[in-house]
Fold:
Amino acid sequence: MTEPSLPQPGQLEAILLVGGQGTRLRPLTLFTPKPLLPTAGVPFLAHQLAKARACGVTRIVFATSYKAEMFADAFGDGSAFGLEIVYMTEETPLGTGGAIRNAAEGLTVSGDAPVLVLNGDILSGHDITAQIARHVENDAAVTLHLTEVDDPSRFGCVPTDERGRVTAFLEKTPNPVTNRINAGCYVFTRSVIDTIPFGEVVSVERQTFPGLIESGHTVMGFADSSYWLDVGTPAAFVQGSADLVRGLLASPALPGAPGEALLLDGAAVSPEAKVTGGSVIGARAAVGAGATVRGSVVADDAAIAPGATVIDSVIGAGATIAEGVVVRETVVGDGASIGARNELTAGARVWPGVDLPECAVRFSSDA
Structure:
């Protein structure tokens, strides 16, 4: 393996993994890939692209699969973000490692250059520039961003030695030896990516990383306690959007000043409504008098009637919420209609276009 070197200005390239189907977020992802979902007023990936550009990335290869054509429609050649974007599509899912190897066909940097790999469902405030520097200083094959969580058994558990060198990679083990986990942002030396078998299904977590460690290559950890969130579930998606709006995680892509609410162009919110908790009210959406919207994403052209309550929820584009409705920790799909005095809570999901009659679902007896 050739020795890596710090990228010169204008030479840092990245791979962005955006091929997943986002099944945990359905019905939001039935027609829209997860990385394109509106998050704090812009497509989720806009926040990642802005962060990548801020740390010196100039060229990004999108590793696409599910609804691949929608990414090019949304971001084009990347010039609006000050980036060059190219697209590499998997015809069949290849796993994380296979997707990285497939996308590497779109890279132009030399074998000794560091390549940043980002996951399209992670919000992170960590210092990418410092992660790249750690990688280069240690002549590493790959350097993993690590973060600490309360329940590491759901993630890849990553123990390190006193130098920060990764000693093992334990993917979703029931008895984790540390609460430090793989946070999904990697710096690879380009030549190491080229050793991943091309056109094969490969897991970096179960094959590539353990294989590098076993063969004596240097795999470094970059531990960091900054903001980090996997937005793969409805609750996490809503939280991520609200945190961005409130400024808990700074993003150059936020289309407005941080605060309790973000109102997009044409949004009509009654002065007698309460919109708080980092809520987004989409373009041309309406919130009536006496309505409460807290910590929620209300998409474009949706309507929240007077007196309705929407908390920690997603209201899809063009959906309507009638008077007296309570929506809590719920996803309401695009174009759905929720009739008066319904109560939807505790993870309910309403599919797009569904028309729920008045008082059809209740969690309390007083209708």
